[in-house]
Amino acid sequence: MSVEKKPRLAVIAGPTAVGKGTVVRALLEKYPHVYLSVSATTRAPREGEIDGQDYHFLSHEDFEGAIARDEFLEWATVHKVNKYGTLKAPIEAQLAQGVPAILEIDLAGVRQVRQQMPDALFIFIAPPSWEELVKRLQGRGTESAEEMTRRLETAKLELAAKDEFDHIVVNDEVDRTVSELAELLELA
């Protein structure tokens, strides 16, 4: 008689341009039953965005109320304007149903989640090298030189925090990285 293991929340973070989004999308294509947490925000929806799918769009008042009721695993004010956060209830509901859940967030969010859910699985996605990270960021061609400098400074801080995580996964090749994540999440 085997005892089924309950799924854990997997918290995934890493520096800019490391390929977190690409890896998570590829993982979800291969394992569509995994739940990807949808963030809440106070910003207005952009054209084509769907409430509950792209974000949970909340008014500033509703977001503040949710903070007061301790409904977030983590939250932050971004650029001194809008708030973003991860609601506990949807993740807890998925885990209670036996569905593995993933949360892709920044380092500050990781630290908040660790306080709220210390039994979560914390995974850091690392680049094969600093040079490769710089090359990937430059290759995107979406940031100004000033923005690239800012992102690379933040990446240095994030890389320095990698030992705060349970596992470090080097994203050298997407399929291999997805396979390693699947093993850590006990999907494979």
What's the total helix number?
7
Q: Could you say what the CATH topology is called?
A: Rossmann fold
What is the number of independent domains?
Answer: 1
Provide the β-strand percentage band. Answer: 15-25%
- For CATH, the homologous superfamily is named as P-loop containing nucleotide triphosphate hydrolases
The stretches of 5 or more residues where confidence is low (pLDDT under 50) are none
* Mean pLDDT across every amino acid position: 92
Overall spatial form = globular
Order of helices and strands: EHEEEHEEHEHEHHEH
CATH second-level architecture: 3-Layer(aba) Sandwich
Rg is 17 Å
The helix-and-strand class reads alpha/beta
Gap between N and C termini: 21 Å
Which bin fits the share of residues in helices? Answer: 40-55%
Strand order of the largest sheet: 2-7-1-8-9
CATH class bucket: Alpha Beta
Q: Characterize the main sheet.
A: 5 strands, parallel
Number of strands: 9
List keywords for this structure.
single chain, Rossmann fold, alpha/beta, 188 residues, globular, 4-stranded mixed β-sheet
Explain this structure.
- The structure is a single chain.
- With 188 residues, the protein is α/β, with parallel strands linked by helices.
- It has a single domain (9-184), classed as Rossmann fold, CATH 3.40.50.300.
- It has 7 helices and 9 strands, in the order E-H-E-E-E-H-E-E-H-E-H-E-H-H-E-H.
- It has helices spanning 20-30, 60-68, 88-96, 107-116, 130-140, 145-160, 174-184; strands at residues 9-13, 35-36, 40-41, 56-57, 72-78, 82-87, 101-104, 121-126, 167-170.
- The strands form 2 sheets. The protein has a 5-stranded parallel β-sheet with strand order 2-7-1-8-9, sandwiched between helices.
- A hairpin with a 3-residue loop joins strand 5 (72-78) and strand 6.
- Helix 1 crosses helix 7 (174-184).
- The two termini are 21 Å apart.
- The mean pLDDT is 92.
